[in-house]
Write a structure and sequence with these properties.
The chain is mainly alpha-helical. It is built from 20 helices and six strands. Helix 2 packs across helix 4 and helix 5 runs parallel beside helix 16. It is globular and about 85 Å long.
Length: 550
């Protein structure tokens, strides 16, 4: 019997024997506890990634001085959430600070008189909590579609996803934005039964996503269409079938949801500065074509100018590193290829099976799960910055929910196959602990080989500077160190005394040559020549390689 997808307010009917009622609850607690331990361990052990000090510094400066000056390319809500963790840290920034956002982040983290590790952990904690809450959303969404067993399967894929653990433990915006979009889609699904209860909540969740990252705008048309679909479905089951009237009412409901989303965006800016004082940053690219139309959106001026900053980023020519080769410009297939490398093999199999099950057996739910994921992925694939799967974290979230559809397949072998695949995911995920950021699945050689295939936030985002300090202190005391580090940390703070090998003639570089793997992936001629005449002797966190130079 196929799960009844009409019961959006709770799990489908099924076996409710008391002896089994506690099993899903136990599984949820166990999976979220495992994810919490993994994220907390990672958050404690990792030093700052490239983006985190920017968001941390912006959050503190914005809240203290009610200023929208820094980091305009991202709306403030996600940074305000990060700032919650530092609310009791008593960190202050001079209102006359003149540096850029990178310098601001470094000043807050390393020059404010606070312990950088504790300050960064306090900023990461709100994102960790949000990531766990989004896990409950994934479970609830999947349970509504395929019952408690489906919910557990979806949550297992979510909680064991190395990418979600890695980025859920960082004070960044990628997981919050994706999680709010999934939450909005789930509430729209539930609105098929009770639109007046869930549509306003869906609008708030959609607004939270758009107020966190501008890339969430790509999902707005799709989710507003789903508002119309949910309203039409609700009215059709509640009374006489009057298509035109129901669609018109659905369009009005979509307008209401859009207004709520816009209100959340405005509210996030007004929360920072009630007077909305704003000076456009210099060098904004002139709007043209469809980009000029974006300026007509009913959003705050800082948001619209932030979009222009993003357009400027997109107009640049970025280099891409994929499967060991460097490319000038973006590759349209980069994100699918990177996801193929960085997703556990068992999860890939369950994703495919879940999509098939959803389009064949759970068709009413397919637009709510598959359509937003497809549109967001298509939008992300058109971008010019191939810097990591963090631009597509909505994929493991939505497809974990889709994978729940496998439990409605009534074949004798199906439960065992699902259990084996989930176990395979668990083993693969736990084996990479605590190095989740550079994860690659077994088909591509595991995390030790990720740097040969991908770069940047897929493997080396500056997170292992602290681990490098420990390794040098314990394994190579007193040796001369030459460092090429790609990150936002300050090596000297961790006790690393190193020189820049690119600032002296190559024949002067002797001893240990320590290079971030992302720098190796995009090495210029000078660094490449040094690497060719060096011998790799050690690695740190699968993201930094230590070489010996005679």
């Amino acid at each position: 019997m196929i799960a009844d997808v009409r019961r959006e307010d709770g799990p489908p009917p099924g076996d409710a024997r008391p002896a089994r009622r506690w099993l899903p609850a136990f599984a949820v607690v166990a999976l979220l506890a495992e994810m919490a331990v993994a994220m907390l361990t990672t958050a404690v052990e990792q030093t700052p990634t490239i983006d985190e000090p920017v968001y941390l510094g912006t959050a503190i400066f914005s809240l203290e001085h009610h200023s929208l000056r820094y980091n305009p390319e991202h709306p403030p809500l996600g940074k305000l959430l990060i700032g919650i963790g530092t609310a009791f840290a008593d960190v202050h920034v001079d209102p006359g600070f003149e540096g850029d956002q990178t310098q601001l982040g470094r000043s807050v983290l390393y020059e404010s008189g606070h312990d950088p590790g504790r300050l960064l952990l306090s900023a990461r904690l709100p994102v960790i909590v949000l990531t766990l809450l989004f896990g409950l959303v994934v479970f609830a969404f999947a349970r509504d579609l395929a019952g408690p067993a489906g919910g557990v399967v979806a949550l297992a894929l979510y909680a064991l996803s190395p990418d979600l653990v890695a980025h859920g433990s960082l004070a960044t915006l990628d997981v919050p934005a994706a999680g709010f979009l999934v939450t909005s889609a789930w509430l729209l699904w539930r609105a098929r039964r009770r639109p007046r209860r869930y549509l306003p909540l869906a609008g708030l969740a959609l607004g939270a996503a758009v107020a966190t990252k501008m890339s969430a705008l790509a999902a707005v048309p799709v989710l507003l269409l789903l508002v119309v679909l949910s309203w039409w479905q609700a009215r059709r089951t509640a009374g006489p079938h009057r298509t035109a009237r129901h669609l018109a009412a659905g369009a009005a409901a979509a307008a209401g949801v859009a207004l709520l989303a816009v209100a959340v965006v405005w509210g996030s800016y007004l929360l920072v500065d009630p007077q909305l004082r704003w000076v456009p940053p210099p060098g904004l690219p002139p709007p043209h074509g469809l980009r000029a139309a974006a300026g007509l959106l009913p959003l705050p001026e800082p948001y619209l100018d932030g979009m222009r900053v993003q357009f400027g980023f997109e107009d640049r020519v970025w280099t891409t590193f994929l499967f060991g080769e460097q490319h000038v410009g973006a590759l349209w297939y980069y994100l699918p290829a990177a996801l193929l490398v960085k997703t556990p093999l068992g999860a890939l199999a369950l994703w495919v099976a879940g999509v098939v099950a959803m389009v064949s057996r759970l068709r009413p739910a397919a637009p709510y799960v598959l359509l937003p994921a497809a549109v967001l992925l298509a939008s992300a694939m058109t971008g010019s910055r191939d810097l990591g799967v963090r631009y597509a974290l909505f994929v493991p979230m939505f497809l974990a929910i889709a994978a729940a559809g496998v439990v409605v397949v009534r074949r004798r072998w199906a439960p065992a196959a699902v259990a084996v695949l989930v176990a395979f995911v668990a083993v693969s995920s736990l084996r990479t602990f605590p190095y989740y950021l550079p994860y690659a699945n077994e088909a591509f050689g595991g995390p030790a080989r990720t740097h040969r295939l991908l770069h940047d936030s897929n493997v080396d985002w500056g997170q292992d500077l602290g681990r490098l300090a420990v390794r040098l202190r314990q394994g190579y005391p007193g040796e001369r160190v030459w460092l090429v580090y790609k990150g936002s940390g300050v090596p000297s703070h961790y006790g690393i005394e190193a020189a820049d090998p690119l600032a002296v003639p190559p024949e002067s570089v002797h001893g240990l040559l320590v290079v971030s793997d992302s720098a190796m992936a995009k090495a210029d001629d000078r660094l490449a020549a040094l690497l060719r005449t060096s011998t790799p002797i050690d690695e740190v966190g699968h993201s930094i390689t230590i070489h010996r130079r005679p």
